[in-house]
TrEMBL record:
Belongs to the class-I aminoacyl-tRNA synthetase family. One of its GO terms (biological process) is tyrosyl-tRNA aminoacylation. SUPFAM superfamilies: Nucleotidylyl transferase (SSF52374). This is tyrosine--tRNA ligase. It catalyses: tRNA(Tyr) + L-tyrosine + ATP = L-tyrosyl-tRNA(Tyr) + AMP + diphosphate + H(+). GO terms for molecular function: ATP binding; tyrosine-tRNA ligase activity. The keyword Protein biosynthesis applies. It comes from Steinernema carpocapsae (Entomopathogenic nematode). It comes from the Eukaryota. The keyword Translocase does not apply. It holds the Pfam family tRNA-synt_1b. Its EC number is 6.1.1.1.
């Protein structure tokens, strides 16, 4: 799915997809885990949220995966900055501490580039844990419209507005191009169609209530679906198998956890 998606987005022709399982089961990786574990105190690991031991090993997995993949630059969501490894230097954030762990056992560190986190329909980070919070390639145009329609979008209010957030962080920077976002008009209510070339134009028009929530959500839904449509079409024949592999079902009809 990732390869098909990148092919349609363009600009990823030279990207190599590498599975961490290619090196995580090696003898060298395991030995490095022990070495790195000796550099993290129990108190420091407690700063990573979670009650299970595996959660406290995340800084090690993260650091070693980047080293064994041979990365010079790690691109990640800005929410990663909130997770810490070392209490004394917690202000540096999780990415910096991960590269320090690499350096602590004699490996070269890596630079980090933090990018905006895309929010889901409920205002939290978009993730696969909640299907209604997530926009994915298999969503039909109606599903995309329904999900975005449920999101918070108060008239004239820019704060917490998910439709505006998607326009700002996803649509305008990467997909809309020079044409911008089209807001359909409504002759019955003397509403003229609008062509907004920049996000700043959209924000200003919405703040002054020249654009109503229903019109904004409809425009954003249409633009998002235009991105998903070619991927959805190409993956149509594989959809059933991909979903079955991702969410296997046990006997009795229950999904495995």
């Amino acid at each position: 799915m990732l390869q098909v998606t990148m092919a349609h987005l363009g600009g990823f022709e030279s990207v190599k997809i590498q599975k961490t399982s290619e090196f995580e089961f090696s003898r060298e990786y395991t030995l490095d885990m022990y070495k790195m574990a000796s550099k993290i105190t129990r108190g420091a690991s407690d700063l990573v949220k979670g009650n299970f031991l595996a959660t406290h090993l995340i800084p090690i997995y993260f650091a070693l995966d980047h080293h064994y993949a041979g990365l010079d630059l790690a691109i990640m969501g800005e929410d990663m900055e909130a997770d810490y490894v070392n209490e004394a230097e917690s202000q540096l954030g999780f990415p910096v501490q991960a590269t320090k762990l690499c350096e602590a056992i004699g490996y070269k560190g890596f630079a980090s580039l933090l990018v905006p986190t895309i929010l889901g329909m409920n205002g939290a980070k978009m993730g696969s844990q909640d299907a209604e919070n997530l926009l994915e390639p298999f969503d039909t145009p109606k599903q995309v419209e329904t999900k975005i329609k449920k999101s918070f979008c108060e008239p004239g209010n820019l704060k917490g507005n998910i439709a505006l957030h998607l326009a700002k962080e996803l649509l305008f920077p990467h997909f809309l191009g020079e044409k911008g976002l089209e807001i359909e008009g409504d002759p019955k209510h003397n509403e003229e169609a609008m062509q907004l070339v920049t996000y700043e134009d959209l924000e200003q028009a919405y703040a002054s209530e020249k654009i109503f929530p229903t019109k904004l959500k409809a425009a954003v839904s249409k633009a998002v679906d235009a991105i998903l449509a070619p991927v959805r079409t190409e993956l149509a024949e594989q959809q059933k198998k991909l979903l079955a592999d991702a969410f296997p079902v046990q006997k009795g009809g229950r999904k495995k956890k």
